[in-house]
Amino acid sequence: MPELRKDPIIGRWVIIATERAKRPSDFKVSQEKPKGGFCPFCEGNEDKTPPEIMAYRKNGSQPNTPGWIVRVVPNKFPALMIEGGINREGLGIYDKMNGVGAHEVIIEGTSHEKALSDFADDEVESVLWAYRDRIIDLKKDTRFKYIMIFKNHGEAAGASLEHTHSQLIALPIVPRNVAEEMNGAKDYYSYKERCIFCDIVRQEKNDKSRVVFENDDYLVICPFAPKFPFETWILPKTHQTHYEDGQVKEYKNLAKALRTTLKKLAIALNNTPYNFIIHNTPIMTEKNIPYYHWHIEIMPSLTKVAGFEWGSGFYINPTPPENAAQHLRDIQV
Amino acid sequence: MPELRKDPIIGRWVIIATERAKRPSDFKVSQEKPKGGFCPFCEGNEDKTPPEIMAYRKNGSQPNTPGWIVRVVPNKFPALMIEGGINREGLGIYDKMNGVGAHEVIIEGTSHEKALSDFADDEVESVLWAYRDRIIDLKKDTRFKYIMIFKNHGEAAGASLEHTHSQLIALPIVPRNVAEEMNGAKDYYSYKERCIFCDIVRQEKNDKSRVVFENDDYLVICPFAPKFPFETWILPKTHQTHYEDGQVKEYKNLAKALRTTLKKLAIALNNTPYNFIIHNTPIMTEKNIPYYHWHIEIMPSLTKVAGFEWGSGFYINPTPPENAAQHLRDIQV
Fold first, then answer.
1. Are B66 and A173 contacting, i.e. CB atoms less than 8 angstroms apart?
2. Nearest CA in chain B to A20
3. What is the spatial distance between Cα A174 and Cα A282, in angstroms, rounded to a whole number?
4. Mean pLDDT throughout A223-240?
5. Residue A35 pLDDT more than 70?
6. What is the 8-class DSSP label of residue B216?
7. Contacts of residue A157 in chain B, CB cutoff 8 Å?
8. CA-CA-CA-CA dihedral for A242, A244, A250, A255, to nearest 10
9. Does position A34 have pLDDT exceeding 60, yes or no?
């Protein structure tokens, strides 16, 4: 069972893998993986993953056989274990608990070659529905306080398999970055009585200099103070607290916004690796909170995080977001 | 003039380089730099850096000529500019100020080949004195609230030049990671009436399982909840708030502890790139605070930070610190 341990000074939790512990010789520094070779995510290899949790399928095909469109499976090497109690415990001045949680892989499509940015809009839409269905299901498990959906594309962004996929981790605590964002938004609301994300949408739509793309439901911007060059956010244009509570037409427009943005980034940055993260409201939060607004943050891996950033939490960004947005806006896809 | 911009949600400041703005074609993804070639930090090339701020020299040699031991110069491509006022300003809901600050390079020695871990103890000690002298000097500039000293070793850790060096950045604000650490330590103190770092030193000395090295003045440990495999901290054994206020014998013992630790890490991890950061008390803090304790954190670059870590602030660490500490303890240097 992995352990969750809390840093006693700043309260950050870390997941310590106690079972398959890595020794120095297990780290192969920035070694390129061979391309090609066997892929457990390809159609026809369904028996090489743990049994599927859900899949969207054509023609009534059977679970764990070919014929799927999107397929969700448990991570074969999970960071957290789905079974067991939480068991909080002290160790002198330190705190720990069992590493309980869900770790799932969303295999976005059957093609080994196609990146998510090369998908058709309706294929991206199926992936977005799979995210939604998994959130709805996992919310029923009362051990979990937060469900994080994210994608690592390309090895420099941490992807260990080439075949396009995203991941889901359900956690027994609200992670600190999320808590921080919620608290920041709450403070703003108590001062201004307006949602800060709604204010951002309003100001960016007026200003236009950081807008990349928009449709009826979503605004895509390079944010005012981005950590990384070409960092790009997708925000619902109206106040929406929960990703999983969207209207049917909204998932359609989100698919369009996400696909267009990823394609623009792929062209601008020559398929640079990236991460995206869905920032969603924590599970136990009351419904209809007026201060928080879910959104997606996309971060291309163009720069290295070094000592200054680790020490300060300050980032040095060599590309003003106005320049990045203009560049992305001008690319036709 | 670079701009400091504040993220309106969580209050993180970023430095936006507005002058030498990078376009997509300026990013060369993980391209190896050629080894060898011209080095502005080598002895004899003193005129290829901006004029030196200070140096320790042998035999009364002249500034900006050979004959130095440690040499401090302004960064040729500074993230912040030393001249100008701070000029805070609002932009609708956003906040920004001028990117004022100092950005210096501490060239640790004349040899192009020798890593800091290969230095003799007294050579490391000279570097530590240079850090101290620069802090003492920059504290006089009332525009600055924090002085961060850090080292990026190896390209994967963000070093752009091979010749061994560290960096100093003086900032017009206390960066959020520092503020967070100070606040966490303050909260602990107000609850326990003990310094959390003193408590960590006490518990680790008793427990022994995470101790890497110790001498009269310093304890070297792998912390209980490390973000990264083989993360290692150096802590003063008694309560010390300011790096720059050490006793002469303490810098001697710190040099020994740092050199030994870096050497153990270099052997264990086959010269893996790393960052180290001196976590020091902010400038304007009252003297003799009972709750904070300066220390050094060393972070080898063995794993990649990916979507989950960016989104959650949670880290997945595949090496328990007890295993890492045992491994490092057993290496004789």
1. no
2. B318
3. 7
4. 96
5. no
6. S
7. 304, 306-307
8. 110
9. no
Among B94, B152, B311, whose Cβ lies nearest the Cβ of A307?
A: B152
Query: CA B75, B77, B79, B80 torsion: positive or negative?
Result: positive
State the ipTM, two decimals: 0.89
* Cα gap A165→A112, rounded to integer Å: 10
Residue A70's identity, in one-letter code, is V
| A239-259: pLDDT as tens digits | 999 999 999 999 999 999 999
For B246, the token pair is: 């050490």
Non-local (6+) Cβ contacts of A161 within 8 A are A39, A40, A41
Cα–Cα distance measured from residue A273 to residue B30, given in angstroms and rounded to the nearest whole number: 11
Contacts within 8 Å (CB) and 24+ apart, A47-51: A49/A73, A49/A74, A49/A76, A49/A105, A50/A74, A50/A76
pLDDT at B147: 96
pLDDT, averaged across chain A: 92
Cβ-in-10-Å burial (0-12, 13-18, 19+) of A186 comes to: middle
- Tell me the backbone φ, ψ of residue B153, rounded to 5 degrees: -110, 120
Q: Which of B55, B75, B81, B77 is nearest to B66 (CA)?
A: B55
Return the pLDDT at B306. Answer: 83
| Whether A151 and B23 lie within 8 Å, measured CB to CB | no
By the CB < 8 Å criterion, does B18 face chain A? yes
Residue at token pair 């990703």: A243
A158 close to B (CB below 8 A): yes
B273 Cα to chain A: minimum distance (Å): 9
In 3D space, the residue among B159, B184, B152, B145 whose CA is nearest the CA of residue B13 turns out to be B145
Domains of chain A and CATH, by start:
3-18+38-171 (3.30.428.10), 176-330 (3.30.428.10)
Which 73-92 residues of chain B touch chain A by CB within 8 A?
A: 79, 91-92
Interface of B with A in 220-279 (CB under 8 A): 223-227, 229-230, 268-270, 272-273, 275-277, 279
Distance separating alpha carbons of residues B106 and B70, to the nearest angstrom: 7
Confidence grade of residue A29 (pLDDT, cut at 50, 70, 90): very low
Q: Which residues pair with B15 in a beta bridge?
A: A316, B4
The answer to whether residues A27 and A148 touch, using CB atoms and an 8 Å cutoff, is no
